[in-house]
Amino acid sequence: MVKAVVLGAAGGIGQPLSLLLKTNPLISELSLYDIVNTPGVAADLSHIATPAKVQGFLPADDGLKKALTGADIVVIPAGVPRKPGMTRDDLFKINAGIVRDLATGIATTAPKAFVLVISNPVNSTVPIVAEVFKKNGVFDPKRIFGVTTLDVVRASTFVSEILGDLSLAPSIKVPVVGGHSGVTIVPLLSQSSHPLPTSLKGDALDKLVNRIQFGGDEVVKAKDGAGSATLSMAYAGAEFAEKLLRAAKGEKGIVAPTYVHLSADKAGGDAIKKEIGKDLDYFSAPVELGPEGVVKINSLGKINEYEQKLIQAALPDLATNIEKGASFIDAPK
Ligand code: NAI
ipTM > 0.90? Predict the structure, then answer.
């Protein structure tokens, strides 16, 4: 029996993500929470002929607490998305408070749940969740994840386009590490499961890296004020949730890049710090998942000079974003 909860379930990501979770046979109960419209979304989804029992909650009558009671996995896509010209960091002002309050609800009601943070800026919102959990004395770094899967999904798709065969996309694996915004997104293309043509270098390689780093902007621009990626994000969020649930059930060897506190696996985390040459608390790395969440933070593997430069370029922003999130919550260290 697995209870999944979506916080921000009536939004652009929340609705299709809830739909995908409703169709996941590993989930037996699905609670939808938002400040608006969840009764409607829940009623709609509840007619789908899959086992998960769906309920919707609003803030009134202790709705957040009711939604979260007994949760095994909580996904957070609550908050405002970007408009053209905005960076993810511009969202901090509004989303930091939303994430803090939702994290407080989780820490006090379902502290053992896996927490999957989608709300941007992920580089800062994950530290916010962690600090709230510390403040409540329930911090377990193995259970808090920043969802960077969309960057991985985009990398697979864009590489398949370069290889001229979209049918390869589902099987192409490219580790994407670092963080989740602009230059902090670092695709390790030299480790692609499907090697790129050797002719892809110079400007062409820069262009591909830039497209993976700023792919979100393509969507923001095309939506022209109506928000950012929602459908591809829902797909990516559901994929990561599925991996975590399979690993939680005991399936071995499931590895996915995700943004975690590096103490989740001390030895692995220390090795990452050495590889990047900086003592950061958080980093997105390939993580092996298991019943307790993080089993092992894997090495970044063989990194070429070009990728080492990308990593070095990511570190200053990443450090600033982490500090901004962590200092938003006044936790005793
Ligand atoms: P949206 O505006 O369509 O939906 C957000 C939902 O959150 C709305 O239904 C709203 O009512 C709800 N909400 C606001 N305050 C809340 C609160 N206190 N409690 C519960 N629900 C609350 O936005 P969209 O497009 O779904 O994006 C959501 C977030 O996901 C944004 O921060 C966006 O930047 C982020 N995002 C993250 C990605 C990633 O790769 N991690 C990719 C794309 C978007």
Answer: yes
